[in-house]
Amino acid sequence: MNRITKNYIYNLLYQMFVLLVPIVTAPYLARTLGPESQGISSYVVSVSNVVSSVTLLGIYNYGNRQIAYERDNPKKMSQTFWEVLYIRFILGFVGCVIYIILALLLKDYTKYFLIYSVWLIASYLDCTWVYVGLEDMKPPVVKNFIAKLLTVVGIFILIKRPEDVSLYLFLLGASVLVANMLAYTQLNKYVSRCKADASNFASHIKGSLQLFLPTVATLIYLQVDKIMIEALTKETSQVSFYDNAEKIVTIPLTFITVLSTVMMPRIANEFQNKRYENIQTFLIKAGKISLYLAFPMTAGLIGIAGCFVPWYLGSQYLPVISGIMIIAPIVIGNSLEGISGKQYFTATNQINVLIKAYFSTAILNVVINALLIPKFGFIGAAIATVISSYICVAIQYFELNKQMKMAALIPCAIKYFLFSAIMYGVIALITTQLKPNPISTIVQVIVGGLVYVLLSAITRDEVFLEMLDKGLKMLRIRRK
C-alpha cells in the first residue's frame, strides 16, 4: 500500500469518526447543558479560535510546506523544525497575553475564557504540522482521534447539568493538550537536535504571512457569526441555536469534502505536467458528482428538519428548525466552492483569487450580520451565511470560467434541482402523517433516498450509473 493510499485511508477513517462524534454527543449536550450554557461554550470556542489563528500568522501551513520542501535534507529540515517551533512559542506568548486581556475585558465570560486557555496553550504547542509535511498522516490522525475519544468519554461521564459548562470547556482543552503532547513522542524518528538560527526567523514569518491572508479571511467568515450574535443580541441561547443548526447542516458535507481531498493532488499533478485538458475533465467530473450529492442533501435537510430537531435536540431547540432550513443551501455552495477553491485554485497556486473571494465574502458577511442580527437574531446570521457563501462561489466561478469552461455543470444542476424538488415534495407529504421521533426521520431519509435514486435510474443519469457500476464491481471483488 503506497503512502498516498495510506494517508487517504487514515483521513477517511478520521473524517468518518469526526462525523459520528457530534451525532452522538449533540443530543446529550443539548439536554444537559441547555441552550444558554451551550451558547456560552460556542461563543468562547469561536473567540479562542480567532485569537489562536490570527496570532499564529499562518505558521501551521507554512511549517508543513517547508518540511515537505526540505524532507530530503534531514539536517536542514531539523533546523527548520526548531526555528518554526520557536517562532510558534514566541507567537504563542503574544497570543496568550492578548487572550488574557480579552478575557478580562469580556467580564461576563472571564471565568470561561481562563478555563479554556488550556486549549489555547495546546494549539500553540501543536507539532503535527511536521508529520503533515512528511506525508506521515498516522501520528496527527491518531492524535486527533485520541483527543476526540477523550472528549466523548469525558462528556458522558462528567457533564450532567448546565452548570457543568466550565468543566465541559476544560475537558475540550485538556483532551487536545494531552493529544498534542503525545505527538511529540514520535518526533525523534524524524527530527534531530540542532541549533536554530534566529536570523532566519524573519524569512519564516514573511513566508507564513503569505499563506495567512486566505486563512484569516476564511476564519472571519466562519467564526464571526457566533461572535456577532452574542455581541448584538446578548443572548447566548441565540448562539447555541445558530451553532447547532450549522453543525447539523455541515454533517453531510463531510462526504463531499473527502472528494476534494482526493482530487486536489491529482489536479496539481496535471497542472505541473501542463495537461490542462485533463484538468477540465477532472473538474467537470468532480462537479457533477458533488452536485449529484449536494442537491438531495440540501432538500433532505430542509425536509426532515421539522421531525428531526424535536427528538434529536429537544423542545428547547425548536428555533433550530428554521436555522437548518435557511442554512441548508450552503451544502450546494460549499460543494461548488470545494471544486473551484480547494481543488483548482489551490492546486494551481492561484492564492490571489482565493484571497479576493474570501476577503470579499468575509467583509460582506460582517456587513449583512450587522444589518440583520439586531432585528432577526440568529436567523439574520443564517441568512448572511447563505448569501456570503454564494457570493464567494460567484467570484470564484467568474475567475474559473475564464480558464476552464464549466458550462457543462449547468444542465446537471437544473436536473438535480428538479429531482431534489420532487424528493422534497414526497418527504413533505409524508411528514404531515408522522410524529417527531427517530423512526419518522429514518422513514423520511429512506423514502427521500429511494425517490431520488428512482428518478436517477429512470433518466439513466450518468453519475448514478457510474456509482452503481463501481459499487457492483466492489461487491464482486469482495465475493471473490
Rg from C-alpha positions? Answer: 23 Å
Secondary structure tally, helices: 19
Q: What is the 3D shape?
A: globular
How many domains, in number, for the residues?
2
Structural classification: mainly alpha
Largest sheet: none
Strand content: under 5%
Unreliable residue stretches: none
Number of strands: 0
The mean pLDDT is 86
Helix content: over 70%
Question: Span from first to last CA?
Answer: 20 Å
Order of helices and strands: HHHHHHHHHHHHHHHHHHH
What would you say this structure looks like, in words?
The protein is mainly alpha-helical and 480 residues long. It folds into two domains: 1-196, no CATH class; 241-480, no CATH class. It is 84% helix and 0% strand. Helix 11 runs parallel beside helix 14. It starts with a helix and ends with a helix.
Primary descriptors:
480 residues; 0% strand; 2 domains; mainly alpha
Task: Characterize this entry briefly.
With 480 residues, the chain is mainly α.
How are the secondary structure elements laid out?
Blueprint: H1 3-32, H2 34-56, H3 59-70, H4 74-105, H5 110-125, H6 129-133, H7 138-158, H8 165-183, H9 201-233, H10 236-250, H11 253-272, H12 276-312, H13 319-327, H14 330-347, H15 351-376, H16 378-403, H17 409-431, H18 438-458, H19 462-479
